[in-house]
Amino acid sequence: MSFIKNLEPEFAALPDELRATVIASLTKWDERVTELKLNITQTPAFSAAIVKVWCSSLFVAESCIRKPELLIDLVNSGDLSAIYNENSYTEKLACKPVETQAELMTKLRDFRRREMVRIAWQDLAGWAELSETLTNLSWLADACIQYALDFLYQEACELRGTPLLSDGSAQQIVVLGMGKLGAYELNYSSDIDLIFAYAEDGVLQDRKETTYGEFFTRLCRNLVKVLDEITVDGFVFRTDIRLRPYGDSGPIIMTFDGMENYYQTQAREWERYAMIKVRQVAGDFKTGAQLMVMFRPFVYRRYLDYGAFEELRSLKAQITQELRRKDRMENIKLGPGGIREIEFIGQAFQLIRGGNDKALQTRPILDVLQLLGERELLAPKDADQLNQSYRFLRRVENHIQQYQDQQTHDLPTDSAMQRILAYSLDYADWTGFKQDLDKVRAQVHEVFDQVFSLSKQDGSTGSSRTGIIWACVADESELMGHLKECGIQDTGSILAAIKDFKNSIAVRRLTAKGAGVLDRLMPQLIEAMQQVDNPDETLMRILGLFEAVAGRNVYLSLLSENPGALAQLIKLSSASPWICDYLSQCPVLFDELLDTRSLYEPLKKADLDQQLKVLLAQIEVQDLEQLMVVLRQFKQLNVLRVAAADIMGAIPLMVVSDYLTYIAESIVGHVVERAWLMLTDKHGLPPVPSQFPTGLRHTHHPWRYTDNAAIGFAVIGFGKLGGIELGYGSDLDLVFLYDCLDGNAMTDGGKPISCAQFYGRLGLKVRHILDTKMLSGVLYEVDMRLRPNGDSGLLVSHINAYEEYLKNQAWTWELQALVRGRFIAGDAQLKEQYEAIRSRILSLPRDTESLKKEVREMREKMREALSTKDKDKFDLKQSKGGIADIEFIVQFGVLDQAALNVALTTYTDNVRLLEGLQQQGFMSKADAETLKNAYCTYRDFGHKQVLQGDKAVIDEAEVAEMSAEVERIWHEYME
């Protein structure tokens, strides 16, 4: 009794109503220890913990009384307080050889009981953090599954023969752990969800010609029996294999091919959620890696999958309905504000964004919540609250289950059991614990409600009148009356358009799920038309957009789930039809409507470069298709930001062109770098230039140049790109230059080619990446007719030959183009060489009158061929007094005056060139200001015309005075 007497301070700390029972139980254990003459190494930590653990877990108490040596062994071996690693359980099982299946079952059950007592003890005593408890439970399950599988497989092979892979090696199955086991989050008395698969089919060479499928089916049945069957020694783990393809009606095990076919063609939506946490837990990990790769595209879609919200919301509603039916709302896993709601929040964002953000393809929910907070997909305070709530709820769950090792998540209703649970969690009474628990669950459910818009669902279909309008369930006069109330002017035409949309092929082809999304969305849309000044035009534009994207109802789900995104779409569509056209071509950009901070804030050049660098770093060097897809999405996204800011007046005209030019420059620069890496990967490097800076080496392949340093290749931009004046639909006028000492010198790779060939292929690769037409569109239309000899000339010109051509063969119009020629990307050394050549060529002395005549005649030819013939219309570029006249005046001025002032060759944009010509004395300040104002006004008109879906042609009267002034200046300087 000395041991019991030493525990009197701990007994005194027990709640009065629990003390007698605990003393009696511990006394019984002490008597058994004395009876068996067992010795225990007592420590202060052990003595301080035993009373609390004994009170909190009937399972621990009964296990130790039944086998007193169990606790003695844990204490004396040091395991009771030890911190295990992931191999500890495997190593301990390896020391327990077995001869028969019956012995295997006994040894595993004894081992499981010993380790479960240890895990419960550490948790209840406060010796282990939650993460350690969950990880240990998962490691224990992994080790038991693998140990049992190894024995049963060996036994089966000795009896029937060994199944082989096509390479002749032995074939073992792959065991997948689902749910909490897969995420290393197993709770104390959890069952384990397993799926079995094997790589290749075949036939054994036994007398019955057993197929591999039959062999592995028997193996899996035996494995489930060994783990799951309840004997006098208990069980190892309750094992559930119903999550396999086809559920209970499906085969116990399938081949990899069969499994891939199932998940690609027949799997249900909820099976995607189940696969988020899938992990191989046992079997052949080499072949298993192939299977795991196959699951990723099934779970994580390449697009943003907002349909996941509705699916998870529906699944949660079914769970809640079932709990309510069974009067089990106090279930801390499945009830309101429970563990499942936290998991659903994390899984929703994983399913929606995991395809694009690979960091979200992680299993543990706490890691997911942290990422959601860091990315501000959840408010950081909400992410932190969910993190703390999850830890609290999982600890409660474990303590409920540790009491009797039962798989329950219901709060106890018996007052004694309530008192024990509260005590185990360090609460003075049940009331205090329950208040904290209710607060935690309320906070969780509030975030769940916000994320899944539960409170909005009843009203999400808009008012009754808009529901009636969309359903078309009243006579036409009543429907038109409701439309009038929503601000619609031409009610007859709009009603007809709504009916046409409902009956369109795209809408008729919608699945039941897609139709449901549209039924929720359309009343919201119609109701919101009261918020805009042009409801008829806005609704027509959006109906066209919805028809274009209806086949991918994920985008409609995004708008249905996010009223803010719908509001942004309506605002932008009201201001510009271009937005709807652009989104119909690039629907992946719908996601941008969610965040108004980024939507109306285009990125500067340095930020664009950094963002693109991060995106491209994830792409393999030779993965050309993925490279082109990512580049197109990058451009589309950033052009949308510029357009949105432009439409809403957040940025001025000059900045619009700057931003659009930054996007093109960033893309071209990275395209050159990636094309270089592709070619050097295949052909090796051209001879290393002597000026190569050795510090700039490729991270993974030190022999490759990167960041376009000393690559001997340059891209020169002309026209609007060179002049930093790109518009929304502008193509790129480019010229490619290269420099090498010997064009016949060979590259140093496995497939060497001459330097001339190398740079020619580099130019082809750059152009191919830029202007290849894909489903996601063309990156940029590329015009290379400004290269020496135009379309008949070499695609890539040597820098020396380029200067020779400009000096001796170029036409005057080519020299005019050179005024706006600007280095865009490539070798910094070539940049210096090109700029020196440009300066020299533009500064050559010319006969003023001859030059003026040639420039004027070229302009007249252009005007005759390209200007609008419509009376009272003004072509912003080609009409008299338009943009082209201003550009030709500037180009003439630079070609005429640069010999007198080389500073005129510094800039390439018309505004600064006009300032230079005025400072040179070529034109008066008044004329220069007139031309600058006219030029900027015309370009502003041009941007607005594009955003309104119109050509760059306006009413002549709108600019009559301005164009007359430009004409006057043209006559003064050019005639």
Structure description:
With 975 residues, the protein is mainly alpha-helical. It is built from 44 helices and twelve strands. Strands 1, 2, 3, 4 and 5 form a five-stranded mixed sheet that branches. Helix 22 (464-471) packs across helix 23 (476-485), helix 26 (512-528) packs across helix 28 (554-561) and helix 37 packs parallel to helix 39 (828-842). The chain is elongated, with a radius of gyration of 37 Å.
The tally of strands reads: 12
Distance between the termini: 121 Å
Strand content: 5-15%
Mean pLDDT, rounded to whole units?
A: 89
Helix content: 55-70%
Number of helices: 44
Output the keywords.
60% helix; 44 helices; 12 strands; 5-stranded mixed β-sheet
Gist of the model:
The chain has 975 residues and is mainly alpha-helical.
Tell me the layout of helices and strands.
Blueprint: H1 2-5, H2 8-12, H3 16-35, H4 44-56, H5 58-66, H6 68-77, H7 88-94, H8 101-124, H9 130-160, E1 174-177, H10 179-182, E2 192-198, H11 212-228, E3 239-240, E4 253-255, H12 256-265, H13 269-274, E5 279-283, H14 285-299, H15 307-325, H16 339-353, H17 365-374, H18 380-404, H19 415-424, H20 430-452, H21 454-457, H22 464-471, H23 476-485, H24 491-502, H25 505-508, H26 512-528, H27 535-549, H28 554-561, H29 563-575, H30 577-585, H31 596-599, H32 605-617, H33 624-647, H34 653-683, E6 713-718, H35 719-722, E7 732-738, H36 755-771, E8 782-783, E9 796-798, H37 799-808, H38 812-818, E10 822-826, H39 828-842, H40 848-866, E11 873-875, H41 883-897, H42 910-920, H43 925-947, E12 953-955, H44 960-974
Helix pairs in contact: 3-5, 4-19, 5-6, 5-8, 7-9, 8-9, 9-11, 12-14, 15-16, 16-17, 16-20, 17-18, 18-20, 19-20, 22-23, 22-26, 23-24, 24-27, 26-28, 27-29, 27-30, 28-29, 29-30, 32-34, 33-34, 34-36, 37-39, 40-41, 41-42, 41-44, 42-43, 43-44
